[in-house]
Amino acid sequence: MSVWHNRLYLYSAAALVFGIWFSVKVALKKGFAEELSEEVKTLGVPAKVIDIRDYDPDDQLADECTNKSVCVFLVATYTDGQPTENAEWFCKWLEEASTDFRYGKTYLKGLPYAVFGLGNSVYVGHYNTVGTNVDKWLWMLSAVRIMTRGEGDCDVVKSRHGSIQADFLAWKVKFLIRLQALVKGEKKSYSGNCKTKGSCKNPKKDGQEEEEETTALQNSSEDELVESSSDEEESGLQDEEKSGSVVDMEDLGNIMSSAKRAKVRLFHVAGEGGLLQAHTTPSLACANKCVFCWRHHTNPVGTEWRWKMDPAEKILHEAMEKHQGMIRQFRGVPGVQPERYEEGLAVKHCALSLVGEPIMYPEINAFICLLHSHRISSFLVTNAQFPQEIRNLVPVTQLYVSVDASTRDSLKKIDRPLFKDFWPRFLDSLRALGEKRQRTVYRLTLVKAWNVEEMLSYSELIALGQPDFIEVKGVTYCGESAASTLTMANVPWHQEVVAFVQQLADMLPQYEIACEHEHSNCLLIAHTKFKVDGEWWTWIDYERFQDLVQVQGESGGQRGFSALDYMAKTPSWALFGANEQGFDPTDTRFQRRNKTKDISGC
């Protein structure tokens, strides 16, 4: 028995040949094929995994019929309903063969097969289209389905079993039961000798016997289809209930990885640098599936709010409690400075980021006003897919828009947005940002080999939104993800980020490089209106901001204010070119002793 990447062949002593084709781009689905291979081995059937890229269906697929192969196809649907790169040729060939008279309608007659498709239901109109099509094309060539098509859904909200892994597990259990029955049933009829390379030859049978075999497989396939359909009907209500049970606020303890969260807070209270903020989000949902998302797409996605909504008061209360609870864990820890500990308990800043699209939350304005009523500053990050919501947003301390790419194609490749009109939405969001009077920031995340070559296009986008600041940061590698091919090779060195920023700043007549934070691999380009008498004023006067917000509220919005009204002078150690490279000299810095980094790419 052998297992393929998009093809798993299982060769048994009973001359049953079992093949699993696997046409996926990411490691998770390869793991599915290998997992199924191991399970099949427990039935006493050897298995082997082979990439479908190396498989020629024109020369080999018809042989599976004579070899009495049982073929399983694990196929994923990628961008715009297309197959993954390694399966493009196979799917193209299968589609053409299914309608080509030269092959005929019985080209794969009697070939037992099963299909498991992998996709994401948030992409309406393209969900599992590859799995559906492969199933259809095989059927059109008279292959015999031994089990109903399975579907795995990456959308944790609509996934029938809660995750794509659980969907596959449920299907796999049924499939193995079905395979066991076939192994037992085929031992009598599929007799013959197997060659060492795994292709089995069986004695010729007369037409009547072969027809009986095919009929038996078709009948069992119909039974399986009826059983599966019944299961789906029974679970319908559960799915509906589950889709509404996703709350919009996780425990803050689950928003960041506990190790990183604890490290950030320990650095601050121990005086080792870093700005301490309460990190929270009123919305776990997002309209993008960015390749560098640190959540690895375990959060729900969607283009509109359709989940249970917690009130703003509850979200803020619980977020503050969780934040203070984590700070208290450092009481008595060696190295913790008492004054920093007390400072950390008092929540003064809130970052509405980390995960999801906060602007999707229906009560986002109420939540921001609630923050300001507690004199907590607000830093909101949006993914530039909701232009009207940006226009309706009340003043925030600082409003960020993620500009992860500068062209339509690269944005689609990096952010993988759900909206079909994502590019017009993106551009309109930048225009909406330009209409805001408070501090606005373009956040550019540089991904090596993905978006660092689009200098001119970036400058055009900056002219469109005229942000106060442009924050350029190298992407942070957050570990292996089944939903992304990002690796450490895509993380630029700080020197590379500096070079990019210098080139970009040279193309912007009203902007200059103002600040640098080497430890965060980040630089800040600022509008020259923040350079007063030759000195940069890029920092924030938080108390002044809260006073201005209060006055605006009391005047019913009549007394507005701008970013220049609450700017503060930039300390010398934060300026670009300073020896400190953005590290506060009042803190204690710890550095690793590493070898000189090679940024040549060799």
Automatic annotation (TrEMBL):
Record field: catalytic activity: N(1)-methylguanosine(37) in tRNA(Phe) + pyruvate + S-adenosyl-L-methionine = 4-demethylwyosine(37) in tRNA(Phe) + 5'-deoxyadenosine + L-methionine + CO2 + H2O
GO BP, one annotated term: wybutosine biosynthetic process
Keywords associated with the record: 4Fe-4S, Iron, Iron-sulfur, Lyase, Membrane, Metal-binding, Nucleotide-binding, S-adenosyl-L-methionine, Transmembrane, Transmembrane helix, tRNA processing
Transmembrane segments: 9-28
Names of required cofactors: [4Fe-4S] cluster
Record-annotated Flavodoxin-like domain positions: 18-176
Xref: Pfam families: Flavodoxin_1, Radical_SAM, Wyosine_form
EC number(s) stated in the UniProt entry for this protein: 4.1.3.44
Region feature (Disordered): 189-249
Pathway per the UniProt entry: tRNA modification; wybutosine-tRNA(Phe) biosynthesis
CDD domains registered for this protein in UniProt: Radical_SAM
Annotated Radical SAM core domain residues: 272-514
Tree of life domain: Eukaryota
MF annotations from Gene Ontology: 4 iron, 4 sulfur cluster binding; FMN binding; metal ion binding; tRNA-4-demethylwyosine synthase activity
Acidic residues: bias regions: 221-238
Family: Belongs to the TYW1 family.
Protein name: tRNA 4-demethylwyosine synthase (AdoMet-dependent)
Species of provenance: Cyclopterus lumpus (Lumpsucker)
Phylogenetic placement of the source organism: Eukaryota, Metazoa, Chordata, Craniata, Vertebrata
Gene designation: tyw1
